[in-house]
Amino acid sequence: MSKVNSFNKFIAEKITAGVATMWCAYLFAIIALISLPNAIKSGDTLVIVSWIAQTFLQLVLLSIIMVGQSVSSAKLEQTINETHEASLGEFELAKEARTLAQKELSELKVISAEIHRVIKDLEKKDK
Predict the structure, then answer these.
(1) Is the Transmembrane keyword given for this protein (predicted)?
(2) What's the first-to-final CA gap in the chain, in angstroms?
(3) Which of 10, 17, 110, 127 is 20 to 30 A from 60 in CA distance terms?
C-alpha cells in the first residue's frame, strides 16, 4: 500500500473513531442548537423543519448511529468469540473421545484375539 493510502486510511480511522462517540454527538447537538434561535425567530415553518431535519438530526444522529453500530459490532464479535471458544472445547472433547475409543478398540482386539486363541485350543483338545 502506498504512503498516501496508508495516510488516508490512518486519517479515516481516526476521524471515524472520534465521530463514533457520544461526546461527539453532544458536541454536534450543541453546535446545532446554536442556530436554533435564528430558525425559530424566522417564524418560517420550512426553515424550522429544515433546521430539525438537516441540522439537528443529521449532525446528532450521525454520531449516535455510529455508536450504535460499534456497540452492535462489539456484541456480535463477543458472540462469535464465545461460539469459537465453545467449538474449540467441543473439538477437544471429540479428540479425547476418539483417543479413548481407539484405545478401547485396541483392547477389544487383544481380547478378541485371546478368545479366538482359547477357542482354537479347546477345539484342539476336543479332537
Answers:
(1) yes
(2) 86
(3) 10
